[in-house]
Design brief:
This protein is of the alpha/beta class. Helices cover about 40% and strands about 15% of the residues.
């Protein structure tokens, strides 16, 4: 017997079915490093239009988490897709290095600066720690397949960057945006520093809720204001507060001028309470059924009334404030100008003493009567005890309420008035310029615009000063008496910047003022505050975009999480609007936060954290990249082991498609074997045209940053257009026709065009897999898929209307349904056992009959006959296509051992008794001819 297997063109490729990504990807990384792929990309893009993705710097502390991975991978999608679109798209990663998290890590090991080690040594330790963290994170980002200038990133603690931060501040000062002011700000007791709004988050806190009696100095004055006769009672104005520790700083009690207040008598006591709160207050005091209202008056009638402080020998006035409400409390608000925003404003309006009894360490100063040295976090109990001793405590309870916390330490904040440096939102029209910049920026999703607009429209001045040591100094000199800046401040800042560029920030802190100011030194103080760390990253447009020659200003796009509307997006905007009067970016893209499969925040305590390094070490980075591309990043982004498993399955389908394409290109040399579009079989021409149309959709989706749409389209193409249709049909032609036949080379030509396009579609997303696939493609090619552009081999193709393949596919689907029914009934095994008969009308007959005997190859059946309806008498099955009926039966013909088709002519050739007629001519003759399929 003849071994006919040797006469078949069976698929063959070294592209492995098993991906083994975890071990194969590092080899690819090594190759990219050895070929210096990033430099090759820059050389290739030298004359191309530029597209700038500006990287928001992660903080250099700890291993990367899935949020980091999501962010960097999304950026990589964009950079790589823009490169394929013909842009020079450099990517310069960066790191944020100054600030409290690093200070705290160093404090854990070495103690606080100035105690166990000098401040200079502490800063050196901070610098060393940050450098170590950068190395860790850099390795992990590279492992994800993110291509960038990893050998030359921007780092905010580099001397040159620190110098340019100082220069950026000078530009803001030159534009008139800086001011110094005494302000009540959020103060973190752990940070021992003022915080900006972007560093504050809200969480529930349980606090003591107390009603405190402020006795009226002259009761007769109260009766006069209420226009009633005097009676023998003690009159008090009660307040309600959840911050007893602020009472030592009390300087007034505020009422609303337009609210109605009632004078309420209970026994020998009388209280002034807002009319709208009478019921809850008297209920709280336990006098709901035992009080009477003596009189009522408006709040403004009580202005200037004098009160006794509840435990100090201090007289405090009643003042008027629009911030007073009847939402809770008593309608009277205790006012401590040092400890609240509204309090501070009221203090300035009424010229109240700005008594700040709380030191930088959170303890009451030595001059604070009764509570000296006591930490405010522990002071409430002592203050409540003193109130009881002075008979000033009316009611004590507890309340759980939303309260500002430090977003780093997750600990409650206090308000504390201190002199600080601010970038003013209004004194030089910064708010106006920032809002104009928002309007001119493209926001993805579009709701991002409204979100940041609201924040900028309502935000207070930006407090940029911090009382810490690890950061960039506010390099200014202020007059010892007037507090004014030195008249040569801008020139001096440039001089300091040059010094920092050479020696780092220590040069400022160790500077002998006389060396730079000369005789003026005795009149000026050196500012020792450092800049808010948000300022460091906020001026990357000045320190990176404008300084790196391969980049440019403004950036085409920036991409970060939703929390950055109040963070990096906003600080970039404010500093650029202050310096340049415009936004530093053209497009802002926002992604959501990662959660587990049940929508819960990832945390170690819940045990639902998935570290990127765990995924890359087990499944491979391409699985993580496929997950990122598969989700709609605009909302919450779920990740779990189950989700990763589903992505492994999706990846396997894509890889199997790539392997099929490559295996069937075995022996194909495009320089020798490529078939011209006009000479290709109709089915091959059709699938190439479909691929060309799909490529347009995919490029458009990349341009719209809709990566999940791309994955859906690629998967649909693999499963339906290729696996479920085209690749299934051409197997017979590929395997059984002669090696160099037009029919086989036509199919290989189509596969070559598909593979060339397909590998590029995958490249931004499945970067490792695409590079691996690219290396197996036949013909001359670039050293890397990333050194190419979108496939342009479709240009020679134009539509052919000889066959309506969309209709043919519909008919094929109906035939397959009936074949499956017969298989389920045990009538058929393989579809090649089927004899299909179609009953159609005249118009449909003409459309299907064009394919002649090749229709059976489309159906993958041994027989396919088309009859006009009046000629077919057997039992028919109705289909979903109007005018189409069909019958499927089992053929009795013999099976060809070579092609497995069951044909009546099997055995007719005496030299090849096991073959059908067409296999005979493919083995011994001039070869089979095909026109369509």
């Amino acid at each position: 017997m003849i071994d006919y297997k040797k006469t078949l063109n069976l698929p063959e490729t070294d592209f492995p079915m098993k991906a083994n990504l975890a071990s194969r990807e590092p080899l690819q990384l090594k190759r990219w490093e050895e070929m210096n792929l990033y430099a090759a990309l820059r050389a290739k893009g030298k004359e191309l239009p530029r597209f700038i993705m500006h990287d928001g710097p992660p903080y250099a502390n700890g291993h990367i988490h899935v949020g980091h991975a999501l962010n960097k991978i999304l950026k990589d999608f964009i950079v790589k897709s823009k490169t394929l679109s013909g842009f020079d798209a450099p990517f310069v990663p960066g790191w944020d290095c100054h600030g409290l998290p690093i200070e705290h890590q160093v404090e854990k090991k070495h103690g606080k600066p100035g105690i166990k080690m000098t401040v200079k040594a502490f800063r050196t330790a901070c610098r060393d720690y940050a450098a170590t963290q950068i190395d860790i994170q850099k390795h992990e980002f590279i492992r994800l397949g993110v291509i960038g200038d990893w050998m030359n990133p921007y780092v905010t603690m580099d001397y040159s960057y620190e110098a340019n931060i100082i220069r950026s501040l000078a530009k803001i000062i030159e534009k008139g945006h800086l001011k110094k002011d005494y302000r009540s700000l959020h103060w973190c007791l752990d940070c021992a520093s003022a915080l900006a709004e972007a560093e504050v988050e809200y969480a529930d806190k349980t606090s003591p809720a107390i009603d405190v009696r402020f006795k009226v100095v002259k009761s007769d004055e109260v009766f006069k204001r209420f226009k009633i006769a005097s009676i023998d009672v003690e009159v008090s104005l009660p307040i309600w507060t959840t911050t007893p520790w602020t009472l030592p700083a009390n300087q007034a009690v505020a009422l609303h001028p337009a609210l109605e207040y009632a004078l309420v008598q209970h026994g020998q006591c009388a209280y002034i309470i807002a009319e709208g709160l009478l019921e809850p207050v008297t209920t709280r005091y336990g006098i709901h059924n035992d009080y009477k209202v003596l009189a009522r008056t408006r709040g403004d009638e009580l202005s200037g009334l004098q009160l006794h402080h509840p435990f100090y020998e201090r007289i405090v006035p009643v003042i008027m404030g629009e911030h007073v409400t009847v939402d809770s409390g008593t309608g009277a608000v205790h006012t401590a100008p040092a400890h609240g925003v509204e309090d501070f404003a009221m203090g300035k309006l009424y010229h109240l003493p700005l008594d700040n009894p709380v030191g930088d360490d959170g303890c009451f100063t030595k001059a604070t009567p009764l509570f000296a040295g006591l930490h405010v976090s522990k002071a409430n109990d002592d203050i409540i005890r003193v109130l009881e001793e002075h008979h000033a405590l009316i009611k004590l309870a507890s309340i759980t309420h939303s309260y500002p916390h430090c977003w780093r330490h997750k600990t409650p904040l206090i308000f504390r008035a201190t002199p600080q440096w601010f970038i003013s939102m209004d004194q030089a029209k910064l708010r106006e310029h920032a809002l104009a910049g928002i309007e001119l920026t493209y926001w993805v999703p579009d709701w991002g615009q409204a979100r940041i607009e609201g924040m900028v429209a309502e935000r207070p001045d930006w407090c940029i000063s911090r009382q810490r040591v690890w950061g960039v100094p506010i390099a200014l000199f202020t007059h010892k008496e007037t507090g004014a800046l030195h008249p040569n401040s801008l020139a001096l800042m440039e001089e300091i910047a040059c010094l920092v560029e050479r020696e780092g920030v220590d040069a400022w802190f160790e500077l002998d003022t006389q060396l730079i100011l000369g005789e003026d030194a005795k009149h000026y103080n050196k500012v020792t505050d450092i800049l808010d760390v948000w300022f460091d990253s906020g001026v990357t447009h000045e320190c990176v975009l404008k300084k790196r020659p391969e980049l440019g200003f403004p950036a085409d796009i920036i991409l970060e999480g939703t929390d950055q509307h109040r963070g990096w997006f906003q600080m970039q905007l404010l500093t650029s609007a202050a310096i340049n009067d415009l936004a530093p970016y053209k497009t802002v893209l926002t992604h959501g936060f990662t959660v587990d499969g049940e929508g819960r925040k990832m945390s170690k305590s819940l045990g639902n954290v998935i570290a990127p390094i765990e995924v890359t070490d087990t499944l491979g980075a391409d699985i993580l990249r496929l997950w990122v591309a598969s989700v709609d990043y605009r909302g919450e982004i779920p990740l779990s082991q189950g989700i990763l498993t589903r992505n492994v399955e999706a990846y396997r389908r894509i890889r199997n498609t790539a392997r099929f394409l490559l295996a069937n290109l075995h022996g194909f040399d495009p320089a020798k074997h490529m078939i011209a579009p006009k000479d290709m079989l109709a089915l091959d021409h059709y699938i190439v045209m479909q691929t060309a149309l799909l490529q347009k959709d995919i490029i458009a989706a990349f341009d719209a940053y809709q990566f999940h749409v791309i994955v859906q389209k690629i998967q649909h193409f693999c499963v339906n257009d290729l696996g479920g249709f085209y690749l299934d049909i051409i197997k017979d032609r590929q395997y059984t026709m002669q090696e160099n036949s037009q029919g086989r080379r036509s199919a290989q030509t189509a596969l070559y065009h598909i593979a060339q396009a397909f590998v590029r579609w995958l490249a931004p997303i499945l970067s490792f897999t695409a590079e691996e696939m690219f290396s197996f493609l036949p013909g001359d090619k670039a050293d890397s898929v990333f050194l190419t552009t979108w496939y342009d081999g479709f240009q020679a193709f134009s539509p052919r209307d000889e066959i309506d393949w969309s209709f043919i596919r519909m008919v094929r689907d109906e035939v397959n349904k009936e074949i499956e029914n017969k298989r389920a009934a045990g009538i058929l095994g393989s579809s090649l056992e089927a004899d299909v008969a179609l009953s159609v009308g005249a118009a449909m007959y003409k459309m299907l009959a064009t394919l002649h005997d090749e229709l059976r190859f489309v159906f993958i059946t041994s027989v396919a006959n088309i009859m006009q309806q009046e000629h077919l008498q057997s039992q028919l099955t109705q289909t979903a296509i109007p005018g189409l009926q069909l019958a499927v039966s089992k053929t009795n013909a013999k099976k060809c051992v070579r092609c497995w088709h069951r044909r009546e002519d099997v055995g007719e050739h005496h030299h090849h008794p096991e073959l059908c007629g067409r296999c005979v001519i493919n083995v011994d003759g001039e070869g089979e001819k095909r026109l369509y399929a």
